[in-house]
Amino acid sequence: MAKHHRGGSMVNQHVITTLIALALMWTAPAVASASQITFDTNGALAGGQIQITAFDPVPGNALAVGANAASAVGDIFGLRYQANLGVTTLNGAPNYLNGSNGIFYTFVAGFDEKVISNSGGPNPFLQFGFSPTGANFVYMYANAALASDLTGLGFTTGTQILKGHVLGTSFTSSFNVLATAPVALDQSGVNNYPGVNTITGSGASSITVQIDSFDPAFFPDLIAGASFLVANTSQVDPYSQTDPSNAFSSNGIANGDQPGVPGVGPLNGFGPNTMFQADANMAIRVPEPMSLLLLGAGFLGLAGLGRMRRLIKR
Q1: Which phi and psi (to 5°) does residue 246 adopt?
Q2: Could you tell me if 78 and 252 are in contact, meaning their C-beta atoms sit under 8 angstroms apart?
Q3: What is the pLDDT confidence band of residue 3, given thresholds at 50, 70 and 90?
Q4: What's the predicted TM-score (pTM) here?
Q5: In this structure, how many other beta carbons lie within 10 angstroms of the beta carbon of residue 216?
Q6: Of 94, 90, 107, 89, which is closest to residue 143 (Cα–Cα)?
Q7: Do 81 and 60 form a contact (C-beta atoms < 8 A)?
Q8: Residue 130 DSSP class
């Protein structure tokens, strides 16, 4: 009898292990490579609904608060980003020009990063990881006017229509200093900051954003918690396509309360803060419906495992 009991226990344990594996597998839904959603460019007014697969902001501004090219491994700093929408696209083809209907859309974001490597030397290469230590927000606003890259004002003064947060998974970011000889920071048209220079460099980031809430007047078919924006962003110095911002929003709500250019010092890249021209593209990805069903099934399977264990012990 004892031998039979041990064999039965081994079989039951094998069943439990298999169910756990299946449940955990089901709780990681597959994500589509590109998703098509409805975006109402008029906010539920007549004639505004279009299908899109991505938002494409124009080149904007990024600010690393408390970081520069000499930052040490382990240093944590805050990143702030702001930009006006340029166009929306459907499978790569533009289908809405920001402001063409009198509504101007903006994006602001803020989260913490951690320096995970710095090669040092005359042309340091820095790599960054996500840090869960501070603020973590991604907002989209509908505004009555275009926000000003030069002043940094107007990015948060409209109606907030989407709210999300950056996921620590699949987060990558880097910056390579190409030259440390000072050049003018603002090389986009007129130099609005003749006393501020910068190092030369370039980098890139890949960021996944989970959408937490949204205004259904603008997004009638989104699903909170199951929708994602995947932002691929380049960051460069000096600025050549837009003006460096005089101010940023510290929390995504205040209008320009965080110093921009005034906080970088005489040489951007080796001062207390560092600014970059940032150009992002935000693809929309939504888990497949079947994966969402499996997600629920996985949770039900996990809930039943405890009951099964108690029955086996009897």
Answers
A1: -75, -20
A2: no
A3: very low
A4: 0.83
A5: 12
A6: 107
A7: yes
A8: E
* CA distance linking residue 245 with residue 83, whole number of Å: 10
User: pLDDT at position 297, please?
Assistant: 45
Describe the chain by its helix, strand, coil percentages, rounded to 5: 15, 45, 40
Residue type, 33: S
Does 118 have pLDDT greater than 60?
yes
pLDDT band with cut points at 50, 70 and 90 for residue 252: very high
Which residues have C-beta within 8 Å of that of residue 8, sequence separation ≥ 6?
none
Classify residue 246 by burial, with Cβ atoms within 10 Å: 0-12, 13-18, 19+: buried
Question: Cis omega (within 30 of 0) on the bond before 238?
Answer: yes
Q: Give the H or E element holding residue 201.
A: strand 197-214
CA-to-CA distance for 249 and 153, rounded, in angstroms?
8
Query: 120-159, pLDDT tens digit by residue?
Result: 999 999 999 999 999 999 999 999 999 999 999 999 999 9
- Of all residues in the chain, the percent with pLDDT exceeding 70 is 81
User: Cα(150)–Cα(147) distance, rounded to whole angstroms?
Assistant: 9
Asked if residues 155 and 182 have their Cβ atoms less than 8 Å apart, the reply is no
Question: 55-69, pLDDT tens digit by residue?
Answer: 999 999 999 999 999
**Sign of the Cα pseudo-torsion (242, 246, 249, 253, in order):** negative
Token pair in block for residue 194: 């003749």
